[in-house]
Amino acid sequence: MNRFRYTVQGARNKVLSAVKRLSAETIEVSEACGRVCAENILVNENIPSREISLRDGYAVNSKDLASECALKSLEIAGAITAGDIPGAALEPGACVRITTGAPVPDGADSVIPYEDVSIRQNKIFVEKEIGKGQFVMKSGDIARSGDIVAKTGTMMTPMTISAIVDTGRAYVKVVRRPRVGILVTGNEVVEPDVKRKDQQVYCSNRYLLGALARNYGGEEIFLGICPDSEKETLSVLEAVHGCDCVVISGGTGKGEHDCVKGAWKKAGVDILFDGVSMHPGRSTACGIRGGVLYFSLPGNPLASGVAFVQFVSVALLNMAGRNVSSPPCTRAILAENLRLKGNGIERFFWGRTTCGKGELKVVPAGTEKKGFLQKIAGANCVIASSSKEGVLKKGETVTVQPVCLGLDLSYLTFFYS
Known about the structure:
By secondary structure, the chain is α/β, with parallel strands linked by helices. The chain has helices at about 10-20, 160-165, 205-215, 230-235, 260-265, 300-320, 370-375, and strands spanning about 25-30, 40, 50-55, 55-60, 75-80, 95-100, 110-115, 115-120, 125, 135, 150, 170-175, 180-185, 190, 200, 220-225, 245-250, 270-275, 280, 285-290, 290-295, 330-335, 340, 345-355, 360-365, 380-385, 390, 395-400. A six-stranded mixed β-sheet has the order 7-4-6-5-9-8, with no helix packed on it. Strands 16-13-17-21-20-18 form a six-stranded mixed β-sheet, sandwiched between helices. A five-stranded mixed β-barrel has the order 22-25-24-26-28. A hairpin with a 2-residue loop joins strand 20 (about 285-290) and strand 21. Helix 1 (about 10-20) crosses helix 6 (about 300-320), helix 3 (about 205-215) packs parallel to helix 6 and helix 4 crosses helix 5. The radius of gyration is 31 Å and the shape is elongated. The two termini are about 40 Å apart. About 40% of the residues are buried.
């Protein structure tokens, strides 16, 4: 079997065939932005429940100020503000002071703004003709009882949250966040607060993959740093701590220390794909056991991050209730040439996208060895190229996959309907 028989989208399709939407949980509405609604949320009464004023001014009966009527002045009979309960009905020939949002009293049908009247001896004098219903919002104009403000499957934005609160709801059912177990392998890997010895490296992948998991709506569960041992890797896999998805960094190749696939086999993980026609990240693999998805990613942080964006992000977004077949993407203009090697596979590059003068521009990051770490540190997207070889020239439009746009995920409504 050709190990790299799967294209990137072909491998994603294998992930999509296995991923399941997670169960629902009830949370405070203040925490729901970016989450997927797991119930229809309905308006339970008309909003507003009665007529209210749209301006600061005077509530009047328009008949008292009709053009054929000689009466052009009205007695000020009181005042009403937002939150008040209306008292007696307005008498003919009278008016009341009213503030924006205050209930319009019975007997009144219009509001005259302060600036359209003059006042003398507790009376208003009206110089402009008014129409019935002027500056009055009717009951149900904002929403009517039974209206749906958030449907099952809706990704909630800040304005969705506002609309839900207007219905009087303080809690809402949402699809729960995926729990993502992260395991880093390698005899040479140590935590950043440990004094590094020769040939040891800090476990930047742990923090990269944890940040990416949170970026795509997951909850990180760190499973530790495991030496290059099939036995010890297996012991971790047999206790995945309630994870919905397990991401392993390192141990994906064919060397003598690459022990992940052997541990998968002994743990009963069914392999969905092992190797993808892409660079970087060709050694990426995916499997499933008991409904839990397992991803084996390269140990190199650049490749590991790219593979996460291409495959794990899609799994997490679908687990959390979003129906997507690929990572969120948009188009940007290359700010400099980008050379492609002619090896016949899809290529991905980290880049930095900026917006200016009404257009997105992207600069490839870390394509040269000199000053690599400083340049790659500013990356905020992955550049995806379907071209197999040659040069993508400055000014060409390319596909970019944004990363770290906002942890509440409501930005995804820009990419998915």
